[in-house]
Amino acid sequence: MKHRLLLLLLLLSTGAAYAQVTYFGDLIGKGFQQATVVQPSDYEGSVTCTIIRKTAPEKSARAVLYVHGFNDYFFQEEMARRYSEAGYNFYAVDLRKCGRSWLGHQKIGNVRDLSEYYADIDTALTVIQGEGNEKVLLSGHSLGGLVVTLYAGERAGREKFDAVLLNSPMFALNVKSGLKKTALPLLLKRAEKHPETSFDLDINPLYGESLHVTAHGEWSYSLGLKPFVAPPVNLGWIRAVLNGQERLTQGITINKPVLVLHSAKSIDEKKWSDAFFTGDAVLNVDDVARQAQNIIGQYSIQAVQGGMHDLILSRQPVRDEVYSTIFNWAKRAVK
């Protein structure tokens, strides 16, 4: 009995064990399922992540894992359908303290080091492999794109994925250069002792309005889980993100093929206009393109004309082009 216990602990510590998860009907319905996974507690208490899946209509050993961004959760039914039609079993993970995984005692999105998310990605990838998937595309959007990039570098030599797709990764905060040199260093210093101090990112709520069906957009999702006005973060979050971006600046080696997609231009409108449908209203795309070149390995960068921040939520002709680009690349990358 003692030897069995030691073996179990060893398997768990190396990530080799596969824990069976129990799926239930997801809030989206339409054949989507979700499973809640309890993770080790942290500085706020108990922690969970949520795995969402929809299997391809025909038996497949290929899968994609999607990691959402800041002030976000998985809701993109069309994305799942496109992957399913291309022969991929679709999976997404709502990271701890986000979307389906948020618990009442937690501050939404609270994180002090982006590596806290690695356990959620590890868990999802282990489940995906345990369900018979032999080839896996790891995909991240915005903050999720930054997290996936760092994760892929940290897991070099131990990858449970075969290629990396980054959709408008948050490789730099969209702040003016003067503030980067003056305000951000002061915030970082204060964050060391006061990580819970609240800070408003001042993300333009018009971006959310450009997406949601009740405003100017075409997408239906929960405004409780993804509100127009992003909730304030804290200085611990700022420090975690800036530290992650600095690690990328120093160069990150990724052993698998990487595709970085971003909009061809940024939008900085203060009032509503249809210009929000034509560019990235969250990030500076020049920063994204420049920072992407700090990936060491086999990578390609492509600007998408007319793409919005979340490229797969752009107007249909644009997102059709995005999917075509993704699947053409994946045919070569996910072998």
From TrEMBL:
Pfam families: Hydrolase_4. The keyword NAD does not apply. Residues 1-19 form the signal peptide. The keyword Signal applies. InterPro entries: AB_hydrolase_fold (IPR029058), Hydrolase_4 (IPR022742), MAG_DAG_Lipase (IPR051044). Residues 60-265 form the Serine aminopeptidase S33 domain. Keywords: Signal. PANTHER family: PHOSPHOLIPASE-RELATED. This is Serine aminopeptidase S33 domain-containing protein. It comes from Dyadobacter fermentans (strain ATCC 700827 / DSM 18053 / CIP 107007 / KCTC 52180 / NS114). The lineage of its organism: Bacteria, Pseudomonadati, Bacteroidota, Cytophagia, Cytophagales.
